[in-house]
Amino acid sequence: MWRGTLFRDRREAGERLIPLLAPLGLKDALVYGLLRGGIAVAAPVAEGLKVPLLPFLVRKLGVPWQPELGFGALAEGADAPVLNRDIVAGCGLDPDDIATVETHERHELERRQALYLAGLRRPEPRGRAVILVDDGLATGVSARAALRSLRGQGASPLILAIPVAPASSIASLEGECDRIVCAEISDIPAGIGGCYADFHQLEDEEVLAILRGAGKEAP
């Protein structure tokens, strides 16, 4: 059921996740924040759980004439994007449409990789508990791409933590991770942004400031 604004800002949303994650008793965990908005939710989670905060790069592939509608996503290190075949078919996207968007977003992903990951030593997730954090789920395609990448790197157990998501989006991702933690299961007719009083777009400097605050090197 839609109840309008649920969070003051991304930090408050992250704080709402801490009491849901702490009882899991995860040992030697890593918290990954999906860049860019997810990192601002992940920061208080990492602080509250006293574990490293790490950035994770993923780029949504938006329908050319409706960019906010993601038909796929490209995760760092992936050779190919994860596609939502229903949206691809429903929008009539052909291989050239997909390739054009993918090329553009791959360039942006590489730019962000050079900016955000320069000098950052990230521990291997293999054999460690990993919490992937985003600021909410719409279609869930970005989270799906990131979860598959982290699973492929050996993260175990793998937990997705989000402040808000519709029940249908949560159900669609249940096979991609070991557990999904969500503070508010709710329809989002106004989009994820409509769930926040402050949902400004994070710029590069704000992301870098969050990462500097968390420490440039993870243990």
TrEMBL record:
Keywords: Glycosyltransferase, Transferase. Residues 109-198 form the Phosphoribosyltransferase domain. This is Phosphoribosyltransferase. It comes from Neoroseomonas marina. One of its GO terms (molecular function) is glycosyltransferase activity. The keyword Transferase applies.
